[in-house]
């Protein structure tokens, strides 16, 4: 179960008519056993799947006389939804089946079935009606307006009316004896707390009924009209009021949520707790939902001195220190303490590190290095007393007390106030702009700069070849492990193995969504957390290692952003520490709008939820989808339908955008197919037969559930697929052939001249067909460009010509990077579209005299007569840039295409085969060097 948090820590979301609600007054809320949330408004009831609303109004389908909905309640015994409202309309819903019941005389404020099977109807100006299962009715309170009926666990039934509180006993309603004016006045809502006590919402607060006595729940609510009461799974009491918003009574005391902090309106009409323990609030300004999102953010609204956070530090004393552009803060037990600045203005904090003396070293933007001893900040050293720059971005204290200070002007080693040494690029540093410091178990000090990474050991600097191998310059952060070092850089995540000294990269080319990573932090679940300008990435370290070891490994990760509770997806970097793992295993990230925190254990709990899946519609060809009665044995698909579309939804509301799906179609393919976040699956031209469709859903990184939503369907054969039609066609064809033969024979006998003309016409037709066949033999059917056979002829002819006339001839081989991943992730159809699109781009970009062909699979060749190798390289680079920058969103969401190109010329080749091998060798070098680049063949040095 999720741990309790203050009300301010919940993540809030709002929906109104702009998002699909039929009306902004949300009169009633309910969740049915299949997982849907139902929203009752004055313009109909909407069914919500986490992404879209489906509207139901008055009409034949629902049987409702009016669209105004006042009541939604699920019968615990039958799991059916009772929908009631204006003009006395009452209907029962089970899946897509609606059944209208006998309407009441006036508007139904509340309809609920009690444990004995009776239906209770609280009517506006119409009293309280009890309808038995046999259909007998009795108006027990004919002269009141009734608002709610509530049955306690012990079985007693209570009614809230405009004339006080009543209970049902011996076939009649009795007034609750009380001299309390709150109880004899208007009663709006009823509930039962975790101790079994009745809670009564009145015009004078909430009253608790125990041992025949009413006591006020909280004095602060004595003047508030309470319209709704909800007791959640913990026993916390949520109270909706007429004009004061929402209150929660819990271990945190009485907390308030109103329009000043985001509520659409202070008038609360309904409350609901869903299966995932989110709280839904119906107001007259829209639907509001509170949930424990993966992330929460500590910002100025919660006491932070500034929103722009550059550094976070988990201290040994249990506190978390947060450095902002407007001062230093200490965060303990949910409370923020701002640390006073000794200067005239607040300090801008860039870096933090713990001191062996128990305090915190604080690196600033303009004030040098400071020290916080737990009570006050003091200056340690600045530019006037020995620093090359007041801009201190990284700090590290060694076991012997030596303090390393990374500044914008070099690396400083401070053993004491009198022994300060500055090391710069003159002593071997790759650059003087220092952003990260860390020490491994071999006592090597790792330094991240603006132009690479080096380590300092035994008085010597050793620089790693990041730019040469990966085009990486900036190193923003380190994660030190026993056997390796992780580096967050401007070209992705780098891994350095201590033993083999091997450097490997995981970047955009391998599937990451961004280039720049600011921090890398691990958690107890073997996940790596990577901060970036586009959010925070969580990825399994095992998946990372698999991707580093194999290019074919599927990279799986989750990108968290504003939709997951972060106030800003822009994480900050270039300072120490941009992210940190706290002692409670939470992960903190410095962002542009506060310090964001995520509890990995919460995500594990979220992922353990088994999500229900609903098949929402089935459509044929271009017709609008419908939902048949799936309880039938089988759905029959008409034979004239060529395309079958199935829409479905995983009914999870914590992370609905991140729900992943798998589908399986028995009778066609018994394997589960990953659909990503797609909620629609289509099948085209399925052969006649019996099929069974299955779909299941999960949150990222959770296990796939064993159960799935499914239905059977049968595709009937088209008339020409039946056996009788095939037999008839054989007979007709035989007769036609015989008749044709007889007619042709007679015709030939009658007119030899006409025969000659026909022979001539046939000869011309055959010539045209031969020409067409020749074209097909030399051209690729998918792209329409020349194929390998044609290209081989070109290459042989032009190579000999180039040698004889001593003219340049160049060759480029072009390969689409990671093409297998495109087929695996999307489909072979998308892969074919990618090949065609790339071929079109190359064809239009290539010079007029060039000879372009599809070599095979995802490879293309470009023969450039008269082009030197340098000119060919320029041409190839232009093609690479065009393809890399092209927008492929029309093919599929998230598709990004790059190519690797190898170039060679005829000067160093004895024959055309050698020239082709050299170009292929250059292509191999381009792939090995990270892909998305052009490499010219270089003759090996002797």
TrEMBL record:
This is diguanylate cyclase. It comes from Pseudoalteromonas ruthenica. SUPFAM superfamilies: Calcium-dependent phosphotriesterase (SSF63829), Nucleotide cyclase (SSF55073). One of its GO terms (molecular function) is diguanylate cyclase activity. The chain crosses the membrane at residues 719-741. GO terms for cellular component: plasma membrane. The lineage of its organism: Bacteria, Pseudomonadati, Pseudomonadota, Gammaproteobacteria, Alteromonadales. Its cofactor is Mg(2+). Keywords: Membrane, Transmembrane, Transmembrane helix. It comes from the Bacteria. One of its GO terms (biological process) is cell adhesion involved in single-species biofilm formation. The keyword Transmembrane helix applies. Residues 807-939 form the GGDEF domain. It holds the Pfam family Reg_prop. Its EC number is 2.7.7.65.
């Amino acid at each position: 179960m999720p741990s309790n948090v203050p009300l301010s820590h919940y993540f809030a979301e709002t929906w109104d008519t702009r998002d699909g609600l039929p009306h902004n007054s949300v009169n009633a809320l309910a969740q049915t056993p299949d997982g849907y949330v139902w929203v009752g408004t004055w313009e109909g009831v909407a069914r919500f799947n986490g992404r879209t609303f489906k509207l139901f109004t008055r009409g034949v389908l629902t049987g409702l006389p009016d669209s105004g909905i006042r009541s939604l309640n699920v019968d615990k015994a039958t799991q059916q939804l009772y929908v009631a409202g204006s003009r006395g309309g009452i209907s029962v819903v089970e899946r897509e089946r609606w059944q209208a019941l006998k309407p009441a005389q006036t508007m139904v404020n509340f309809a609920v079935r009690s444990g004995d099977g009776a239906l209770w109807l609280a009517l506006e100006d119409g009293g309280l009606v009890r309808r038995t299962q046999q259909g007998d009715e009795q108006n027990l309170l004919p002269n009141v307006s009734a608002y709610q009926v509530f049955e306690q666990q012990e079985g007693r039934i209570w009614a809230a009316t405009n004339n006080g509180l009543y209970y049902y006993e011996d076939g009649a309603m009795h007034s609750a004896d009380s001299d309390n004016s709150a109880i004899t006045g208007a009663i709006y809502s009823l509930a039962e707390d975790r101790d079994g006590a009745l809670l009564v919402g009145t015009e004078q607060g909430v009253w608790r009924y125990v041992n025949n006595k009413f006591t006020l729940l909280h004095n602060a609510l004595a003047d508030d009209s309470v319209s709704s009461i909800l007791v959640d799974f913990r026993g916390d009491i949520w109270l909706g009021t007429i004009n004061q918003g929402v209150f929660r009574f819990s271990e945190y005391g009485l907390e308030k949520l109103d329009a000043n902090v985001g509520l659409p309106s202070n008038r609360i009409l309904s409350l609901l707790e869903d299966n995932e323990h989110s709280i839904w609030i119906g107001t007259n300004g829209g639907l509001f939902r509170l949930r424990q999102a993966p992330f929460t953010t500590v910002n100025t609204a919660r006491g932070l001195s500034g929103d722009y956070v550059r550094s976070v530090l988990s201290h040994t004393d249990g506190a978390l220190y947060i450095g902002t552009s407007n001062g230093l803060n200490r965060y303990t037990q949910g409370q923020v303490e701002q640390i006073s600045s000794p200067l005239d203005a607040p300090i801008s904090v860039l870096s933090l590190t713990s001191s062996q003396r128990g305090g915190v070293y604080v690196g600033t933007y303009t004030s040098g290095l400071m020290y916080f001893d737990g009570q006050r900040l003091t200056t340690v050293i600045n530019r006037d007393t020995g620093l090359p720059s007041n801009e201190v971005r990284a700090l590290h204290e060694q076991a012997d007390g030596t303090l390393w200070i990374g500044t914008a002007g070099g690396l400083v080693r401070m053993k004491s106030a009198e022994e300060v040494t500055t090391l710069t690029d003159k002593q071997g540093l790759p650059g003087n702009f220092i952003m990260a410091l860390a020490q491994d178990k071999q006592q090597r000090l790792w330094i991240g700069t603006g132009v690479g990474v080096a380590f300092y050991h035994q008085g010597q600097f050793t620089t790693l070849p990041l730019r040469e191998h990966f085009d990486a310059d900036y190193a923003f952060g380190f994660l030190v492990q026993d056997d390796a070092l992780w580096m967050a850089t401007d070209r992705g995540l780098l891994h350095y193995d201590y033993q083999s000294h091997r450097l490997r990269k995981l970047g955009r080319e391998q599937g990451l969504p961004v280039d720049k990573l600011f921090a890398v932090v691990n958690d107890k679940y073997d996940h790596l957390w990577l901060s970036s300008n586009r959010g925070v990435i969580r990825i399994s370290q095992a998946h990372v290692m698999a991707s580093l070891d194999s290019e074919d490994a599927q990279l799986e990760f989750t990108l968290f952003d504003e939709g997951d509770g972060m106030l800003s997806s822009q994480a900050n970097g270039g300072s120490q520490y941009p992210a940190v793992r706290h002692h409670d295993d939470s992960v903190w990230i410095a962002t542009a709008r506060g310090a964001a925190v995520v509890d990995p254990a919460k995500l594990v709990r979220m992922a353990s939820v088994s999500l229900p899946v609903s098949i929402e519609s089935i459509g044929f060809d271009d017709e609008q989808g419908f939902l048949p009665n799936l309880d039938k044995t089988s759905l029959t698909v008409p034979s004239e339908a060529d395309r079958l579309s199935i829409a479905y939804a995983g009914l999870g509301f914590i992370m609905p955008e991140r729900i992943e799906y798998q589908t399986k179609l028995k009778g066609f393919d018994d394997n589960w197919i990953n659909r990503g976040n797609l909620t629609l699956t289509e099948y085209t031209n399925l052969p006649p037969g019996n099929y069974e469709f299955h779909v299941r859903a999960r949150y990222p990184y959770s296990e796939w559930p064993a159960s799935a939503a499914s239905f059977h369907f049968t595709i009937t054969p088209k008339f020409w697929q039946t056996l009788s039609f095939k037999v008839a066609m054989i007979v007709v064809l035989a007769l036609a052939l015989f008749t044709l033969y007889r007619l042709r024979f007679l015709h030939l006998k009658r007119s030899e001249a006409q025969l000659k003309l026909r022979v001539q016409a046939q000869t011309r037709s055959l010539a045209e067909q031969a020409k067409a066949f020749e074209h097909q033999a030399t051209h690729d059917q998918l792209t329409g460009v020349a194929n390998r056979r044609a290209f081989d002829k070109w290459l042989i002819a032009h190579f000999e010509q180039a040698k004889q006339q001593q003219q340049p001839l160049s060759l480029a081989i072009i390969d689409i990077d990671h093409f297998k991943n495109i087929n695996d992730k999307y489909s072979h159809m998308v892969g074919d579209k990618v090949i065609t699109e790339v071929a079109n781009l190359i064809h239009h970009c290539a010079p007029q005299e060039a000879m372009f062909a599809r070599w095979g699979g995802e490879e293309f060749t470009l023969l450039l007569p008269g082009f030197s190798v340098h000119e060919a390289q320029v041409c190839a680079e232009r093609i690479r840039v065009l393809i890399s920058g092209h927008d492929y969103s029309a093919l599929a969401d998230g598709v990004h295409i790059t190519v690797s190109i190898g170039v060679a010329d005829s000067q160093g080749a004895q024959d055309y085969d050698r020239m082709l091998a050299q170009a292929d060798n250059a292509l191999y070098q381009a792939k090995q060097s990270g892909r998305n680049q052009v490499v010219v063949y270089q003759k090996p040095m002797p």
